[in-house]
Automatic annotation (TrEMBL):
SUPFAM superfamilies linked to this entry: Metallo-hydrolase/oxidoreductase
Name of the molecule in the record: MBL fold metallo-hydrolase
UniProt-listed InterPro entries: Metallo-B-lactamas (IPR001279), Mito_Persulfide_Diox (IPR051682), POD-like_MBL-fold (IPR044528), RibonucZ/Hydroxyglut_hydro (IPR036866)
Keywords for this protein: Metal-binding
Source organism of this protein record: Thiohalorhabdus methylotrophus
Domain Metallo-beta-lactamase: 12-171
UniProt-listed PANTHER family: PERSULFIDE DIOXYGENASE ETHE1 (PTHR43084), PERSULFIDE DIOXYGENASE ETHE1, MITOCHONDRIAL (PTHR43084:SF1)
Signal peptide residue numbers: none
Pfam families for the chain: Lactamase_B
Length: 249
């Protein structure tokens, strides 16, 4: 298996490229619109052909490049079946893991950040999306988020994985790339360190975070599998335009 972690620095999003060495086909998990050309270039440089894009959830801070990839190279669009998006080609849920050739991604329904959020277990790795971040977690105050549900998702689904399971988050804002389940259980300031549900709820209720500046455009855009709104304000155009520089994690 080929595995690469790619970074988009406008929304601090990690995209994961997973390729089959047997067939040369690849999946991009949580691809971001401004880096679609970069991601295709990396895929081709590795001798791979993009077969699918796969989402962990409907994002509020960036627009997926799933639709663009499908237009450019004919890749299929996969995502949580619970979202019920008409533009999804392959619905994924816990009963129907995502499989491509010799690559198997086991879906773990981990709601709380959003109601239909999925994490994906890939061998000794787990792609946690926004449910579990390094020393943190996604917020729970929009898109049917629910802090008690997120606490249970992490403790019942993710923290029951082996301690040495590698954690690959959907975002990081401090230059960190990877963690482990054991590290998050021991160090995560919101969900680890033996924090009770009541302590977690107290933390989440006092974050006092600003309204996401791109959410009103990102959510409908992602419900259409990556359609950038035509009326997007000029100061937000960078979320849809191609990046001049695309650093990788």
């Amino acid at each position: 298996m080929i595995f690469r972690q790619l970074f988009e620095d406008i929304s601090s999003t990690y995209t994961y490229l997973i390729g089959s060495e047997q067939t040369g086909r690849a999946i991009l998990v949580d691809p971001v619109l401004p880096t679609w050309q970069r991601d295709l270039e990396v895929t081709r440089d590795l001798g791979l052909t993009l077969a699918y894009t796969l989402e962990t959830h409907i994002h509020a801070d960036h627009i997926t490049s799933a639709r663009m990839m499908k237009q450019e190279v004919g890749s299929g669009i996969a995502g949580p079946s619970l979202d019920g998006l008409p533009c999804t080609d392959v619905p994924v849920d816990e009963a129907n893991p995502f499989e491509m050739d010799d690559v198997r991604l086991e879906a773990l329904h981990t709601p709380g950040h959003t109601d239909n959020h999925m994490a994906y277990k890939l061998g000794d790795r787990v792609l946690t999306g926004d449910a579990l971040l390094i020393d943190g977690c996604g917020r729970t105050d929009f898109q049917n988020g629910h802090a008690p549900t997120l606490y249970r998702s992490v403790h019942d689904k993710l923290f029951t994985l082996p301690d040495d399971q590698l954690v690959h988050p959907g975002h990081d804002y401090h230059g960190r790339w990877v963690s482990t389940i054991g590290q998050e259980k021991g160090r995560n300031a919101r969900l680890g360190q033996g924090k009770s549900e009541a302590e977690f709820l107290e933390i989440m209720s006092n974050l006092n975070l600003a309204h996401p500046k791109f959410i009103d455009h990102a959510v409908p855009g992602n419900q259409a599998c990556g359609e950038c709104p035509s009326d997007i304000p000029e100061h937000l155009q960078k979320y849809c335009g191609e990046m001049e520089q695309s650093p990788q994690g």
